[in-house]
Structure to design on (507 residues):
């Protein structure tokens, strides 16, 4: 009887346990100075696996400097960088392709030095990630034969091809036409979910924030002046974020001199 | 002055790193051979041309003085050979390498630095010293003595031909005089000098390239600085090595 009742009762839906955030990048009290100029002043940030955090702010506020610190290219004057993986990759703002190599060789070099893949697997990765950025037909060309936007996309393909645990993008779609930029960002969103990466995107483009970010932090004069979810960022009245989002001249951000 | 000391110290640290990687066998021979072709083979025409003119110029000086003033035909070849082997060949080839190779190394590495290519190497766990500097030092260290040998031979040949045309010294007498005056030690010293100059040039050029910061303007500034530093280093090392060789 009890079995019958049990069967006839509506069963609660099996709710998967909420995945516990896995911190992959932890910054504590990061300070960086160039001479007397304090570029970063006590930055704290945690980025979890399968999360995309957009670091936004006006030009010259130290956004690119921050990702270079995370990538190990700059040593902070104070503070601590804790990474849960050494599989880290960075897509540079200008592509930073090795000018003496073809597009395919650029990606192959990164794979040869960071993975144990054989030649066939390397070629597979080259095909896949160049297709992702829409440049598979350019694999035998030299970087100088490509436009600036194409070089940037190859740089993204090279960075992603090593399938990192921590992915850093510096202005991934700046300079790309809006349609291409949106398509690329959708692809990046998809690949992030597939590879379960902890991703930091430096940008000052609102469409990039809308298309890519889960969370937004805003950097101004060396400090985070705003942190929140993307949805909150799109509606917040916090003065810095509001001015940045609405592109107004009036507000706490010095639009003449930047930071 | 403080900056100069810092830079000398940094270049010294880079040299230490280079030796450490060379002795550990971290040498990309494929890249080194490609660079020997690019730096060494491509410098042969300019070295050959310079050597010929230097051989002719030194012949004008020495042949006229010795033959016309003293009538000592049988020592002309020896004088010319010793001048070329001991001083001129290693120094003028170093000057050619400083302008042709040193400038190219700094411009290339400097451009890579300002376009984030060096940082990209680091992101992909590629040590720029192993990947870029070691092959350039190996290639220049092999090319330098080889070019100096070629330059010395061509300068001597030009000197002999010009001496024969100018003061009518037969080739046989000229080459007998060369064989009598020049020793194996002169050749070894010449090659040692050129090896040291080549390593110094490649090291200074690589250091200036990797030390480039900012914009493309700084690439030009550092490239010019490389040529000046390399010329100064060549003359200073030449004095030092000459003193050592002739006090031994």
């Amino acid at each position: 009887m009890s079995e019958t009742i049990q069967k006839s009762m509506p069963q609660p839906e099996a709710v998967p346990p909420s995945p516990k955030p896995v911190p992959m990048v932890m910054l504590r009290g990061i300070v960086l100075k160039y001479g007397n100029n304090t570029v970063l002043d006590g930055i704290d940030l945690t980025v979890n696996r399968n999360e995309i955090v957009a670091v936004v702010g006006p030009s010259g506020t130290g956004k690119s400097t921050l990702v270079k610190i995370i990538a190990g290219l700059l040593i902070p004057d104070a503070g601590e960088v804790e990474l849960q993986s050494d599989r880290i990759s960075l897509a540079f703002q200008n592509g930073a392709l090795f000018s003496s190599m073809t597009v395919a060789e650029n990606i192959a070099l990164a794979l040869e030095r960071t993975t144990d893949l054989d030649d066939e697997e390397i070629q597979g990765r080259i095909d896949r990630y160049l297709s992702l950025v829409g440049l598979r037909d350019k694999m035998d060309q030299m970087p100088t034969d490509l436009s600036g936007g194409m070089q940037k996309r190859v740089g993204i393909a090279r960075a992603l091809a090593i399938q990192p645990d921590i992915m850093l993008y510096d202005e991934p779609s700046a300079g790309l036409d809006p349609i291409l930029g949106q398509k690329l960002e959708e692809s990046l969103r998809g690949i992030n979910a597939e590879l379960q990466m902890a991703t930091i995107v430096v940008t000052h483009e609102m469409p990039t924030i809308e298309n890519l970010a889960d969370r937004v932090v805003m950097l101004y004069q060396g400090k985070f002046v705003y942190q929140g979810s993307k949805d909150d960022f799109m509606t917040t009245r916090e003065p810095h974020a509001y001015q940045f989002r609405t592109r107004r001249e009036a507000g706490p951000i010095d639009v003449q001199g930047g930071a | 002055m403080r900056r100069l000391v810092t830079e000398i110290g940094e270049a010294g640290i880079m040299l230490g790193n280079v030796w450490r990687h060379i002795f550990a066998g971290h040498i990309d021979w494929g890249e080194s051979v490609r660079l020997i072709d690019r730096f060494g083979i491509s410098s042969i025409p300019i070295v050959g041309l310079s050597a010929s003119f230097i051989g002719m110029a030194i012949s004008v000086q020495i042949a006229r003085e010795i033959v016309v003033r003293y009538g000592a035909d049988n020592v002309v070849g020896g004088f010319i050979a010793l001048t070329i082997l001991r001083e001129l060949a290693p120094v003028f080839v170093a000057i050619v390498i400083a302008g042709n190779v040193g400038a190219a190394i700094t411009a290339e590495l400097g451009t890579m630095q300002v376009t984030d290519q060096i940082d990209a190497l680091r992101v992909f766990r590629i040590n720029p010293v192993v990947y870029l500097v070691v092959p350039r030092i190996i290639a220049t260290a092999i090319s330098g003595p080889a070019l100096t040998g070629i330059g010395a031979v061509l300068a001597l040949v030009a000197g002999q031909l010009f001496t024969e045309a100018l003061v009518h010294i037969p080739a046989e007498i000229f080459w007998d005089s060369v064989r009598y005056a020049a020793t194996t030690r002169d050749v070894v010293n010449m090659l040692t000098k050129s090896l040291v100059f080549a390593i110094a040039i490649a090291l200074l050029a690589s250091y200036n390239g990797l030390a480039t910061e900012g914009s493309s303007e700084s690439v030009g500034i550092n490239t010019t600085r490389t040529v000046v530093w390399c010329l100064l280093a060549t003359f200073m090392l030449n004095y030092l090595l000459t003193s050592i060789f002739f006090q031994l």
User: Anything to note?
Assistant: The first helix of chain B runs from residue 2 to 23. The CA atoms of residues 50 and 92 of chain B lie 8 Å apart. Chain B is about 90% helix and 0% strand. The interface with chain A takes residues 111-112, 115-117, 119-126 of chain B (CB under 8 Å).
